[in-house]
Fold each of these.
Amino acid sequence: MKPDEPSGRGMPGPARTGWRAVFTLRRIVTALVVIAAVAALITWIRWPEGESVRSTAAMVTVQSGPARNQPIELDTTVYVPESASADHPVPAVLLAHGFGGSKASVAADARRLAGQGYLVMTWSARGFGRSGGTISLDDPDYEVNDARALIDRLATRDDVRQDADGDPRVAAVGGSYGGALSLLLAGYDQRVDTVVPQITWNDLANAFFPESTGAGPADGVFKRSWAGLFFGSASAGGATSAGDLAALLGARQDANGEIDLSTVDPSKADELVQCGRFEPELCKLYLEAATTGRATPAIVERLRRASPSSVLSRITAPTLLIQGQADTLFPLSEADANARGIAATGTPVRVAWYAGGHDASASTRETDRVNALQLAWLDHYLDGTGPAPDDEFSYTTAGAISVRDTRPTTRIYTLDDYPPGTGDGYRVRLNGISPQPVANPPAGTPAGLSSLPGVGSLTSRLGSAGIDVPGQFAAYSGVELARPVDVAGTPTVRLQVASPTGEAVLFVKLYDVDADGRATLPGGSVAPIRLTGLPRTAETIGTAPPVTVSLPAIGHRFESGHSVRLVVATADQAYAGPAAPAVYQVSVQANSLRLPEVSPVPVADSTGVWVWVLIGLLAAVAVGVTVAVLVVRLRRRRQDVAVDPDAAGSPLVVRGLKKAYGDGYLAVRDLSFTVEPGQVVGLLGPNGAGKTTALRMLMGLIRPTGGEILVFGHRIVPGAPVLSRIGAFVEGPGLLPHLSGLDNLHRYWQATGRPAESARLEEALEIAGLGAAVHRKVKTYSQGMRQRLAIAQAMLGLPDLLVLDEPTNGLDPPQIAEMRSVLSRYATDGRAVLVSSHLLAEVEQVCSHVVVVSKGVGVAAGPVTEIVGEGRSVLVEVADGDRDAALTALKAMPGVELVNPNGRGLVVELAGAERSDVVRELVGAGVGVERLVARRRLEDVFLELVGEN
């Protein structure tokens, strides 16, 4: 049998070497159970469950509008921790949801915060869920006043801590739409004690009409994909009350509250179809922008009214800004603008970036990090019980792809200062900076692809690669980086552009290109620019003043051996560009690409000391396993060195073999026999005699209780190197039917890990005698052909001892005769064969020697002729070429019952004729008789030996 083969039914089990001898299934399962139990205990200790929480839902009427005198119903839920009471009031959190969601979207976060001891109020914003009213996009008179009314309600609760009469202790928390609302609320209501907004905007006009040279939204490039998704997600959905629907339609209600259809204003009905629950004036502004692709002064004014940028100077509440690095809707620059505006007044501000955002959901580790930052901030600035949060800025870079969930792994870094990357940075020298022509396609189609808004993980995976249309972009590559470059902040580059129309809309991207040429677009973001007053031709491009482009802010590591590629494209699927075709000339100024390089400090995993405890336990297990491996190897080395000189020349010596199982059952009691070179030995015995157990011990799969097995003088133990000199076919061939016989043999040998040239494939095939059939698929094979292929498989490498279990199973008499020839051919050049079978007549024809086992004890062993002895049978050996003539003569002879071929001789069953009659008949037929000996049938002897008559 060969070591290192894959185990399974129909194939030899592996001869376990090294670690396989130690890592048994039972040991592995036991170790895993122990480790899992310890890990579960550590998790329970490290992350105990929070308080139990009760929740109450209610429709609440609030007063909003410019004068806060317009009633509206909001659908609310309050989450109250068990510890909150009139005797123990707790701080409160107003938790706002994102655009297109409802209070249900933040239910899990609300329970988490309530479990930490905060009373949490959630609500569906106006125009969403079951709340009334229309969507006014965080308008100070409406959404902001709605939230101020909710603070008023918190001021009336005796289980909420109060700073003064009518002033509850409260934080404003939210993501995206809810994040902007929390900042606006803090600007308009000084009762807000701290703010934690996530992935939100600073200036909604800049967010939807970005322009990366600083020109402002009036000259910005319309972010049409995100705007369409933003508007479409709420334009037609959501339940509303009959009263609100009547107001939207300009209709009256009857006495039963039903809408009087005869009073519906047709223009209002059309407006409802187009705008759904959006405030009509806001809807008209969106439709105008979507049609023209440009921002009018009215659009800019309306969007800025709903932007935190309008109130940053009034925010005095400490603010934690958490922004996503996978966010083409509200990029990192939006958080940076918020941080600068709030910090200008001296208000404490901290910024953290994380690997997530509108384009990709965060990993569990990143979500835990963000939640921990949020909770630490609230504990200090809201509850007053926690330590002051660190002033450091943190961000995340992508690592290798995780095998578990195919997402990139992450590495977290911190910097002492914010904003990051404000120095001179790392200058990249680009190749090919001379003008390159790029074509703007008609109607902007086809367009390059940088992101797919709203498509979750697919967005991040496609966006990270980017797609540029040939002929529509200019590319400039940098030299290979000699060292890693950590970047955090906003890269910049200077361009010169010429256009036949004097204007151009372009999209600038910064790729990371690995050593194999694979490019990724960090964050999936691009920098859109709209340039006017440009020179008209390539010859005059040098007259254009260079423009500085601020590329999207990133947190990214460019690894050593990678390079940077700058791409300037004319069309992007996410943006609206000029419809008219044109060819622009683009040039990059030499050495103008600046990367904001930083020197970050890596952050240890937040699980902290408990992870180290678990690592320590795993290390202890690893040390124990290593010691066990070394002990096993040392023992095996000693055993392997000790060679029994009396058995060194024998392929197999079995001495006093015993095997007792745990329940006391003795499968093998006392078994001894020897297999010498050139022998084909049959191992015989009835069912339950111990044959299979003996074979398993022989192959090193189980250990004997007593005695020993020697192969060429080396003692057999699990994993013993001498097992490589054994080939085995046990319990069926385990062949792959869809492959050819040859492919099966190749894959089998490949699985052993040995060099292909050591398989000696041609010799094994010649001995097995498969011929051209080896090239056919195994599913077309007969049973006999499958058996021969399986034996050829066991013969690969021409092992010195071949062990076969029922090799003639399913073979017809001619095939059995051929099998005898196959095994005889194999048992040459010092090799030997051990055959286990219950078909006695076949063993008698195939084997030269037999070992008879009964009830675990060897009862006879020796040559077949000696075991059989005298009887009615005689063995007649004739001259070469005379066997067929002898067979014909004896079958016609009176007094002969049966004639069976055996090698170059014949086994003759006498029924009245004498041996002298047989000789006389053969000589008379011209047959040369070389030898005639008495012979009994092996079956007769076997029954006598095992005591079954």
Amino acid sequence: MKQSMTFIPTLREVPADAEIKSHQLLLRAGFMRQNASGLYSYLPLAQRVLSNIQQIVREEMDNAGAAELLMPALQQSELWEESGRWYTYGPELMRMRDRHERQFALGATHEEVITSLVRDEVKSYKRLPLTLYQIQTKFRDEKRPRFGLLRGREFIMKDAYSFHSSSESLDEIYDGLFKAYSNIFTRCQLNFRAVIADSGAMGGKDTHEFMVLSEVGEDTIAYSDSSAFAANVEMAPVIAGSPGTDEQSEELERVHTPQQKTIEEVAEFLKVTKEKLIKSVLFKADDKFILVLVRGDHEVNDIKLKNHYNASAVEIASPEETAKVLGVPTGYIGPVNMKGEAVILADQALKGLVNGICGANEEGYHYTGVDLSRDAKIDSFSDLRFIQEGDASPDGEGVIKFAKGIEVGHIFKLGTRYSEAMNASYLDENGRSQPMIMGCYGIGVSRTLAAIVEEHHDDKGIVWPAEVAPYDLHLLSANAKNAEQAELSEKLYKELRSKGFDVLYDDRQERAGVKFADSDLIGLPLRITVGKRAGEGIVEIKVRRTGESFECSVEELPLKAADLIGK
């Protein structure tokens, strides 16, 4: 493609509202433009990168036995009502009415549509398993779109859905698509981890997120420094442990702690470490109140609490609810001589704790010398806290470290969450009706584009990996007004294209410095400069990633270029 004939509006200055490198560089290098908050037009360069990423996705999904289809972005509300998500999905679902006052939503996800499609067409176990996928624009009304393509209101996604007659079949397809995802992100040259995750609003269990390690990521990953273990921080299990002390249990004592409410305040007032304190937090799981206990230096993990009770929703009780249920203000509640009616659930790190300190269920007072086995009625002990850096890795190898991550893929074992709600069933070998078992597998295609730029750039611009780059080569003549250079450039442009190279040819009437700056900004793997030695049949090759440059004869150029980019 001749640069004079395409649309690459580069910018010299960093846009004021672009916070992260991928957002800045995709705007500056002329890959995209913002139309409204969270909405972007993909310009010709970005469209080519997206096509390359999609091609990788299609190749790996096809190899895994999935078939591509395309479903409507506009979805009728009746399907979402069948699954029960029309009223529970939240304000991110973009809803509308047609001229007949029928309700619709723009597709944020497609579980309902694919389930209705398969249930109407597949009736026998002989047609299972079946895996279908699409690549399509999705819509979510994000409260605060930010970071360019990393969190927008409209984005490109690959979503796949599998249907099975057995859990063993689901496991097999899940494992196959896990490998396919690993191949996809490896081919995109991303430094990623597959982490144990929470399914959230999607439902189901046994899920993994594919996270690109990046300081601008919005998720925190807990990973082992000595093994392949990795998990989203809210899902990382904690190895059971007890204080392991030889301390003699003291008598329970009620002490005056005026105006001391927080863990830090009480620890400082009583001259003890936070590990000695028992943090007591009242939660509401669906309609049930639970007093959750963790060590003073730990934090309650609400996801673990939700999973412990298999609850639909978990939230911290409000100060008003706490006062009503337990009869005491927040800051002084505790499990000893508790006044209200609530189940008491304790983190496993508190098992065996002696001489602890907790609220005395009276404003201005705390208990010291607390022995939970003696002084409180604990319903059960469980893993209820967030893992911390320095904790032992759950797989027993190494210790935990934290990193930020950008989620680019997520796979779920949905089970029968949607098939039972929407009556998607099949007849088994004995002619009995059974609900289909489902899996769900998503990749953020446009987010992957941004993640690649976050990982592959330098102070001059983007540095595209060869397999996803918009073009293989950037050909330019240093002086477009020089007839000798222009003639050789035109000749090379035709020859390289005939040999299968994707070539961006900068034929603009611009100064060499402008062309070089734009070339570095756009970031194609190789730059071929036709300069002063054009008459001798000599050009300069520059490798964008390393900055290495050297001269090459035009006869050797095709083979040399192919070798450098692995074509």
Amino acid sequence: MGWLCLLFLLLTTCQFNSTCSSSSNSSSSLSSRHLCHPHDSSALLQFKNSFSIDTFSEQELYNGTTLYSNSTITWQKGKDCCVWSGVTCEKMTGHVIGLNLYFGGLQGNIHSNSSLFSLGHLKRLDLSRNDFRGSPISSKFGGFVSMTHLDLSYSNFSGPIPSEISHLSNLVSLNLSQYSLSVVRLDFNRIVQNLTNLKELQLNSVDMSSVVPNSFKNLSSSLTTLRLFNCHLQGKFPESIFHRPNLRLVDLFYNYNLTGYFPKSNWSSPLEVLDLSHTRISVDWHHLTRNFKSLRALYLSNCSFVGSYLAFVGNLTQIKRLDLSSNSFGGQIPWSLFLNLERLVSLNLCGNNYVGQFPEVDSNSTSISSLYDFSKQQLVGPIPRHLTDLYLYGNQLNGTIPSWLGSLPSLEGLALGSNQLSGNIIEFQSRSLSWLDLNDNKLDGLIPRSIFELENLQSLDLSSNNLSGTVEFEKFAKLQSLSYLDLSSNHLSLSFNHLSNNSWPQLYSLALSSCNISEFPYFLRASPNLDRLNLSYNRIQGEVPKWFWDVAKDSLSTLDLSHNFLKGTAQHLRWKNLGYLNLHNNSLQGELPIPSPSTFFFSISNNQLTGEMPPTICSLISIVVLDLSNNKLRGKIHQCIGNFSQSLSVLDLRNNKFHGVIPGTFSKGNVLRNLDLNGNQLEGSLPPTLLTCRELEVLDLGNNKIQGTFPNWLESLPKLQVLILRSNKFYGEIGIPETKFPFQKLRIMDLSYNRFNGLLPTKYFEHLTAMTNSQEHELKYMGEGYYQDTVVVTIKGFEIEMVKIQTFFTTIDFSNNTFRGEISKVIGKLKLLKGLNFSHNELTGTIPPSFGDMCNLEWLDLSSNRLFGDIPEQLVNLTSLEKFNVSENRLMGPIPHGKQFDTFDYDSYTRNVGLCGLPLSKTCGAHQPPPSSFQQEDELEHGNGFDWKVVLMGYASRVVIGISVGYLVLSNGTTDWLVKVIGRKQRRRTVEITQRRT
């Protein structure tokens, strides 16, 4: 009986388990299907169909690979939306609770009636990295009451962030990072007060200039991540934020006007990542290192430090990444402090003023102790094998690159560019290196063999050194991950002779300027991702091969072929996305080619182009710099050029054969900064619409046939620094200013070779502030990063083309007109003036003694006037004066002597019969009778027993003080310049000096 009972129990149990198992499997099968709710499926399809889908619209370059994403490709009617890519459903109901369309290629607007807002059960929504074409963020987003994660970042939304976002009280993560969004103070206060569960807040690049930083005090105590990069925050950042118990990451990078301090009380913060770069928050190392001992990444680029900036860095025992770049730190690099941080893998000290050499290390040592040898004044310790990234770019380090850097087993990035390192490049034993930057040093010798074996190398910059030798380009064959290569400006000779089917498919940027190349590299035809190509300053001759016009025609954005020997035409510009095109200084012929409408920089100057401007030039709606100078172009200047109001900054058409009138279509709000029409055949008067060019700094209209009276109305242009009207048909008196502060920033004024008359414009001279007071404390040049202004001026009797205009260069040239009357003493107040030329006029009166106050004057030409009286003794104080000419006047009395006056020769004083003393042959007697006012006889050139050897000795040994050499060989010391005698007028020499534009 007992056995029967036991058997029954076992059978019953087995049957029950089987039934349960079957029931469980059936339930599991049902729940795994979780068919999409029909309403949600329809809403998703309607949402998808409201956009155009571009799988190529969003691109990222990651490890040399272009990535594309299109989540909606699997969305098809009739299929379960719960299995669609990017869609997550609730298992029991089938409602959509998650939608991830990151990099979805969506293009279009999101309107308030979008079907998206009918998905009322959404908890997670990611629409980041799409293109919603400036749509505002709809207030309907505030209706997702169950939302916990919302990411709308970098999807081209615009306008204010709606206050309805504050209704999402369940939000844990909010990312609205966007360049064209803003948030007002009241709406932000509502957001931080109502989102009490928020852990992650990311508002990078959102305009928060109206938000008071104290508002952040109301953020949730659960906050772990706070990203506020480039938000225009201003005011004092609350110290209490750093006391948050769960805060792990704070990013305040690029908020220049944000101030504040670290709390001074003792506490322990769990903060792991802190970025205060480019803020004005005071960094106190003592409090930072004492309280933030959990820091793994610390970014303090361009910060304000209090106290000893590295005294307590050793307390950061967990630190892995440390950025102290751009802080003007100087002296020796405290290597012992950094290498004691045993977890440190990345160190960035770029853009400081560190000096000295690299330390020695002991390859056999394993202990980091006694790292500093005071007898050698340098570090002696173990190899820092933990380093993966070392950035020392832009300091003043010298000596050689130590061999131990090449043996670091995990080194991935090494940046030593823009220092003063010399010697050979070391061999790299490690194969982990992916980024190497040694540009702008004094390194010499050959490129080491090991570099050609770095198979993981993605970026290599060896430019601007003294490397030599012939390099067969096939040596780079193993570097298949290479995306950036720059070998420019060395003494290398590159050869492509042995290349067969070699290609570098990931190549993104290639710069081979000044590499002695004689042909177009044929491997470029297989470079589909090429974005930037620089083959300038080589010796490539002949016509551009046909295959080259198709190189990377869908991706190329920058092309520089300047300073070669290219011939033929350039009519086949097929690049669709070209932004920068430089064909300057070749021998191209034919008509003017027009690049794609996306081009913002186009220079084809110094060629042999002919013909007229084609109408297609009007398609350059994005143009910023248009340089067609020094060609043989003719015809009229298209009126449409004046319509490029919102983009055109530089228009350089000088030295062509354009005729007609200057376009009068410059509209209000234009950004034109440089207008150079010098050396054409333009006629008529100046268009009044030039007055709308409020950004204009350079106006050069010299050597044309423009007529009219002096354009007084130009005086109101607030930024005008260069005004050249020489060699035109202007006439009449200049008169007095029409505004209260005329020409305040004017530094170069050339009105020579016109028909101006009347008195000198003394009232204008009184207001030339830029020639009186200087705010420049360092050598700078006019222009922009990719274009430097050029001007032709007369310096010491020579016409010189300054391919760089120094910001402290000042000159006035009113020569060859018919000005009359006296020279005002007020000119002596122009103490920054380098040159003054009033020659060949009808000026009378005396030379003002106040000229002796112009302490920077280097040349003074008052010749061919009717000046009388003596030469003021005060001029002897002009110790920078190198060229002085008062010839052909009615001056009298002894010539001053001493200092620079002992260096001026006979030609400075000729045809002044009343002058006497050296270097003239006429001696000054005790009672020298004054000459008659009309006496014009030439002086005797010989006599009185004067010994010319004395003059020659004095002249040869003179001290030439000034900046004239700087005008010819500019600041970088380049001697690649050309002197060309042009010839202009009797007794005048003209020289054109050109230099490569850097």
